[in-house]
Amino acid sequence: GNSVTQMEGPVTLSEEAFLTINCTYTATGYPSLFWYVQYPGEGLQLLLKATKADDKGSNKGFEATYRKETTSFHLEKGSVQVSDSAVYFCALTNSDTGRRALTFGSGTRLQVQP
Amino acid sequence: DSGVTQTPKHLITATGQRVTLRCSPRSGDLSVYWYQQSLDQGLQFLIQYYNGEERAKGNILERFSAQQFPDLHSELNLSSLELGDSALYFCASSVGGVNQPQHFGDGTRLSIL
Fold first, then answer.
1. Residue-wise pLDDT tens digits, B3-45
2. Distance CA B85, CA A97 (A)
């Protein structure tokens, strides 16, 4: 079946530090990969996506590259801000199984200190 | 603003009761998904509707049911509520393709006393 594994949190960084949140997946075929962000008291917002191998998704300074050889989709940002403090979820959908619903990782809480 | 509207925002009720959660998808989106977010289970897919018809089921209990109406809004019905049903319930909508992003509402927080 499909599964997503994320690094445990919380991740605590100082402002302007480099961010990496690791995400690996298990799925048959060629899943589509997503990063969602959840700010306190809010729903999930799509941060970025990649739909095929070697695609790079990017948005608001965040980037992630779809690596099929390592089944990974790590989230990176060069310089985090306090406003980036939130919970980040890696997720996938899988056209091979016809599954359009998202399979989520457990989420990684990011805390950025001024 | 995602364009997905969920009501109510908060719901407090007792064990054994029945509640209905409502979702209005983004304009033009035909697919509606329901997810449950809890501390122990994380984010889990419950059920999907596409243009009024059930399309896929996930980890949805038999006590739970849903439907999508002709105007595309959806309702999730939870009955014989148990303490363990306390969670945040999200609705998401998309145009329908597997690569299409899903847009989430702000959720309904259900508390069972």
1. 999 999 999 999 999 999 999 999 999 999 999 999 888 999 9
2. 29
A45/B58 CB distance under 8 A: no
CA–CA separation, B30 and B12 (whole Å): 30
| pLDDT value, residue A94 | 83
CB-based contact B33 A106, cutoff 8 Å: no
H and E: helices and strands count for chain B: 0, 11
**Mutation site, A44, A45, A49, A87, interface B, largest B CB count within 10 A:** A44
CA B34 to chain centre: 3
Partners of B32 on chain A (C-beta within 8 Å) are: none
